[in-house]
Structures
1.
Amino acid sequence: MEDSGYARTRRTLFSSARLLSVLNLDGPLLVGLSLLAIYGLAILYSASGQSIDTVVRTVMRLALGTAAMLALTHASPNFLRRISPWLYLLGVVLLVVVEVTGVIGKGAQRWLNLGLFKFQPSEIMKLAVPMLAAWYLHDRPLPPDWRSLLVLAVIIFLPAGLVAMQPDLGTAALIVASGALLVLMAGLSMRIVFALVLAGAGAGVLGWHFLHDYQRARVLTFLNTQTDPLGAGYHIIQSQIALGSGGVFGKGWMNGSQAQLEFLPERSTDFIFAVVGEEFGLVGLVGLMALYLFIVARSVWLATQTNDTYSRLLALCLALTFFVYVFINAGMVSGLLPVVGVPLPLVSYGGTSVVTLLAGSGVLMGLYSHRKLIGT
Amino acid sequence: MVSRVRIKDQWNEQRIFSQRTLGAMLVIGVLVLALLARLSYLQVVRHDYYVELSQGNRVRLDPIPASRGLIMDRNGNVLANNEPAYQLELIREQVPDLDDTLKRLGALGLIDPEEIEDTRRVIFSRRSFDSVPVRLRLTDDEIGRFAVHRYEFPGVDLATRQTRHYPYGELAVHALGYVSAISEQDLERIDRASYAGTTLIGKLGVESAFEPQLHGHNGFRQILVNAQGRSVQRQGAYAPVLHSQPPTAGDDLVLSIDLATQQAAENGLGDHRGAVVAIDPNNGDVLALASMPGFDPSEFARGISRSEYAALSDNEDKPLLNRALRGTYPSGSTIKPVIALAALTYHLVDPAKPEFCGGVFHLPGSSLLFREGKTGRHGWLDLTHAIAKSCDVYFYGLASTVGAERIAAFMAPFGYGELTGIDISGEKPGLLPSPEWKKHAFKRPQDQVWFPGETVNFGVGQGYLLVTPLQLAHVASVIAGRGKSFRPRLVTGVRDLRGQISPIAPVADPPIQGVSAADWDIAINGMMGAATYGTAAAISKGATYQIAGKTGTAQVFTVSRSERLTQKVAERLKDHAWFIAFAPAEAPRIAVAVLVENGGFGASAAAPIARKVMDAYLLRQNTPNAETAIPESEAAD
């Protein structure tokens, strides 16, 4: 009995491993993502005020993302590299279309209605920018020379500028971040990095004049929460109350007064991190962070196993971008960073980010599983 | 050239890549540590602070007003209690068609059709889920009318709130005072927190003076509110434990007032304007405190309208004036026993030596003549008879012998010109004149001189002297107690929630010094004479106890001294009638002062009322009232 039970377990494990490898999936990363998705759904159910509808819609998005992931794992690095320019071009065209319809519709326009579901073209750019940058650097010497850096700057800032004009500062910043990370990983000289940081500070002072009022208010509010407790500061104050009152062990699932009584704004979207902190406490947040770190670490490990420039740069960039998302959201909710509209990966409700993130993971797993097919 | 670079690249790239990956992991580690530090700060270090903020966010306190303490007379008859009053309230979000609803309420006569616009504005100034009163003070008839049509008015309902009720209506209103809406001035002197939810506060009388005891402590109920401020029972699965604290009702007050005596006083005054104060000389208990006309205190508790208030305040009979405490009048002849005591104490009179009354007094060294009052000429009489028959001529002489300064000095300990210190506010001190006083009271030097003629008038209680009925009742109790007296008081005990009465000890006034027992006998004999064979002989008819009394007539209109008042004067210019008395004379249990405005002669207008009051108190109770305070009054001696 015991023997056959052991054998069966072994057989099951063996066959699942074989199934995973057939599907080009990475077991640990898949487990990490699945746990995160389940944790996220539990939180979302509470944060949305026990809305089954919200949970169902998120499950559908997860399914869509998983489908994208499964499809992309089969794409070879060569194929991805070949389509990179075309994907980028498509993204830029869609951004322009959105910009034009936005001008016609008078107001912020980020969505493209595809009938079946709404689609945010800026999400494509989160993948397409690092892909094109990696494509550009693939057959050029590293670290990149000045001319390459100039081209990369155009690749990064053209779509970022378009997104910023929507205006969606958060996504624009993320696009810049993903592009910049890739250039950094490509061996950008640290002297240039410092120079850029200085230049960036100068540009920030200048850029202040081009910010929209509400964007300026957000920055100001971050610098001093108490200036406008019922306006822009309200988000930060309420999210800190939610976190702080949660304490070490939290108030319990569906028992967070800040979240349940709607004192916490955007509780199921950008500020869902505060709901975790209120209902599950520091313990819940550490658990969540551990899951994220595991996913990031596994992704980085996968990236290190690839052996061509395109794969390495893209895979590492995807892994680090994932962490950047987490850190910006958590930093914003806990008051370390200004309030920018960045969702918490795989947990926040809505948007196309769930699909993009899972698609990115698919790309990453695909790059890893196709690593031996590459010759130099 | 291109391939040369490429070959070098592979190795170099690998190195760059490893370095940068390591660096990135390092940065990630630092950032995660920073985040964890921040979260620990918020969730561990500042946890208590944020818990408090989150509590404040979601929990509101809903006050539960405490029920106001009862007021009872000395025998436990309830003089003030609480009754529910009905009002119509509306919750906007539950009303299908607000305009139509208001119109139909108007058609039923439940709200004034002309006020619909104002009502609408009030409703929209509140939140849609607030219950807004649209009509206060519903009558029984209106309650019935609404009850029949209630099903036609979703979102509209009757609400009750506690309001003050006075079962005996106007009885003793000037002693009890009343309750009314909390005013701006009230807000300055009360603790706002403990009055949250309370709408009424004591004004005047016992209701005001004992407000802290009567009010009690409001309770509260924690209610859960969401970010919009709407009260919610629970939100989804979220239903926390909420606390509440029941209110503590106010303490009950036991008054010294005796219901039957009070009723006798008010019935005795009837339609007259005037006041009656009766005091137990043994402890200062105010047995009756009446000022007529009165008013219905319930109107104030319900919310008096502007026109109703104007009707009260503009009434020429001044029903709002507390004549017992705030009405000041010349004392008239009621002063004579005190003048006699002054002369006796200073040894300036031989009480047995008769003086002749020819109806006129010649002030020595002056051409002024002072005439006897209505009683004509008395012939020869001694001091006792002079008091009994209220001989003005005798006292003109006595006063000028003693002198104004000594009279004033002697009278002061009786409480003339001073507050009696009764335990409710609003009392007036009256005025005890003296040459010294006159120097300060007038601006022009020629007015600052005290004339000998003013001393003569002082002897019969005319001129500058002003007293309140309460003061004279107190004077009567001082004489009754042969110099010993107590501070008048209305509240004798406070009954807490468990029914335990904490008695309030009577406060003894400093006794009158230097008056011998024989001197007190002479003054009291004179007053007994007044009530048996003197000016007020009629009141002792049929009395089973010995009364000591003194009539008085206070001039309203000072006629020229040399001129007899013969012409008929208007009712309002008639003299005020006074009577002070105590009984039984040998062991007094009640001292009374009666004032009847424009009553004319004291004996006929005021004395019969005093008799009724004394009968009501003395004949019904053969033993002293079994108040716990009485033994303590003896201890206080």
2.
Amino acid sequence: MIEVKSLKKQYPISGHGWGDKNSYVVHAVDDVSFVIEEGEALGMVGESGSGKSTIGQMLLMQTQPTSGEIYFDGIPISSSKKQDSKLLVGKVQSVFQDPFDSLNPRMKVRDIIAEPMSNLKSWSKHEVDSRVEKLMTQVGLSTEHLNKYPHQMSGGQRQRIGIARAISVNPRFIVLDEPVSALDVSVQAQVVNLLLDIQKENKTTFLFISHNLAIVEHVCSRIIILYLGKIVEIIETAKLHQSQLHPYTQALIQSIPVPDPTRVKIGNTLKGEIGSGTSISNGCRFSPRCPQVQAKCLEQTPQLIEISPRHWMACHQYHDF
Amino acid sequence: MTLKNLNLTQLKIQITWFVLMTFVTLGLFGTWLAPYDPTHQDLSQSLAPPFWHSGGSPAHLLGTAPLGQDILSGIMVGAQVSLLVSLCAVALSGLVGVVIGLIAGYLGGRVDTVCMRLADIQLSIPFILLAIVMIGAMGPKLSNVIFVIAVTNWVTYAKVVRTETMRLRERDFVKSARVSATPIGLILFKHILPNVINSIIVIATLDIGKVIIFESGLSFLGLSVQPPTPSWGAMLADGRKYISIAYWPSMFPGIAIFVVVLSVNFLGNFLRTQWDPQSKK
Amino acid sequence: MKTAMTPLLSVSNLQTHFKTPHGIVQAVNDVSFQLKKGEILGIVGESGSGKSVLAQSLMRVVPETNLCKASGEINFNGIDLMNLTPNQMREIRGASISMVTQNPSTSLNPVFTVQEQLLETLKFHPQDQIKNPRKRMLQLMTEVQLPNPELVAKRYPFQLSGGMKQRIAIAMALMCEPKLLIADEPTTALDVTIQAQLLELIKSIRNTHGTSIIVITHDLGVVAQLCDTVGVIYAGQLVEYNTVEEIFQNPRHPYTKALLDSNPVFGNKQSSLKAMKGQPPQLTKLGAGCSFADRCEQALPLCHHTPTDLIRLGEFYYHRCSVPTLDGVANL
């Protein structure tokens, strides 16, 4: 349904501090290509600097790519052309991370949810009102909250309102950028279950961006793992525990603190800092930290290759598969 | 403790409203309500003190000015000029400044650069110079005075609103509105403007006092309403020379300005809390 | 007479209440626990549970405005901290007890270099045994795994990454060789691979220096990997306190059980998570009964109005619930 080809996003910055007259380029997203299938929940995992949020922004047409193409249903789209954005209206929606920030503090809940529908003008005022009430119930909130303001609701409730707003226009594709990261653990589970229900019921396509592999594993059927602007692995969630994985993916899994005191993993952590997106050399981005680094890794950037059906990896080690 | 606090706030609100209503009434009907014609000179009564001093009389409650004009009447009629000029100038400069600030802040890029350079040009022109040139050319009519002040004053609103708009532009709820294809005008009006209104109110309330003083300066230079038409600023300026022997020609107009500015500030605070949904629980 | 078994820190019935226009907030409401030398205690709670106020209360840096009650006993090394004068408390803070907070960008002053900030601690708390502050500083910087300590010392915080800033914050906290380190959500703002490094670091600090550490977090994984004992906080109250093994394998309090059940674990995919119903309570609207009763699967009618007590059973086992558990211990 959505195809991304060689997407790049670069930000020019001038100088790293006092006395640095050079200008640098931050390669936030560096030659990323992938496909999102209709009805699937695709996870996008990475740490800071991975570019995952930037890719989300470009798919929402909020940021202009430096180069590369995005295709929606086979039609190329670009955020600069007005008619292209019109194509996506009503088909694409978003849910953002911060439940305190994603709702206008000066608007009532019912107006917040109604906004996307009012913009589309596909429903009469009366229809919009009844849909708003149905949506509230669908996300598990009582309609008595409709005339309240966001600050009168809790974080979990606000996030549900954001979700209600997103599904109000029956979008085919929703980009969720860290939708549960800012919520309490006890509330996260509720919202995750809600998202799972919505995805199953409406067969909406999800792009679920997060740094939390555990939650992504729960919600998504396929995962893309990013490091410093490049895709290092694309794998089906079901195969995560059976396959040979990219060293970075292995390190990510290894780093997740397991809530089981009998399995203490401390002692085998990945060394080094994540690095910046400016100093891009020819080799693999991950080579400075990779425990399995070879000479080849420092000279040549590995290509993303399908090493087994629906399992792609960018690593010199596994090219011989 | 809370009950007393509540009453104090209510009392403050009542007093503010009362004061402002009084001055608005004066502004509208001052000419008819005043006991004397404030331009009427009576040299025999020159510098008569207020009625509570010896030598004063109930005929002139607040005393008289150097040329025998009744001060109370001067204040009542002068309310017209001062309030008219300040309200209109602030409203006009506010409107222009806020619109420019919103557009410059939201669109950024070239539009922003052009608007800010315009603002810089405006700031580099000294106010008095501009006033002399413009009023000299167009005549000392009240409407020209309002225009001159508004042209100078919009920059503060524009700069503040622009900075806040730039911050708000990146907030998630604005991003959501863009994704939902909300047209730009609606984004500015429904999402950005209500969240910058607080700053605008604060600036505007402070501005009202500032503009009254501006106007008095122009008056003093002969660029505003010409004497003998009274304005508070002019009365203030006129009375300066006599302060050592007679405080009342300057002090009472000064008190009038003070009371109005204070009330407008209270009103501003009140409006801000009224309009902020987060203050209601 | 202090023996090896005497706890370093013994907290009893700690209470910190604030007065707000919406009512009294019992941010810390009857918390008791003990901490031995070299032990790592984890305090687990969600936002609004009062865990940060607990950390502040232990250091006695709770903001004075609106504070209407600060009572209980904080017995640190034989001294009751609640009885100390502000000057005496100031001597302890930073030297014997120090703190690392969540956001490394705000805990470091952006206008001073790293070394100015690190050396400042020793300036205010000169220690007899530390003769050469600069040497100590570089030593600690190496210990917290900062690359090129000489170079980093001259840098300003904005030139460093989040992980590095947090390491500096930890080094700063260790400058005076404190006996107790309080870490308030130390890794929440960091990336997962960096978090793993920091957790390893915290454990090695305990192993090398013998410092007792209190880690406040909402992440159950962090608690399991790092801590020896765990205290679970809900709505300002300590609801369960036990060794880490017992908490994870044999949780007694319904909240602890529900928290563990609703936590998505990597490698254990379920078709839907076992979510807790309802939301965390507002601290101004607490009733007389158990604050968890509305969300509790095992709630009995009496739970909603009978106050709960913290009872101690065994060396480590504290419990607060009106419903009898399988052990047969109850508070009825």
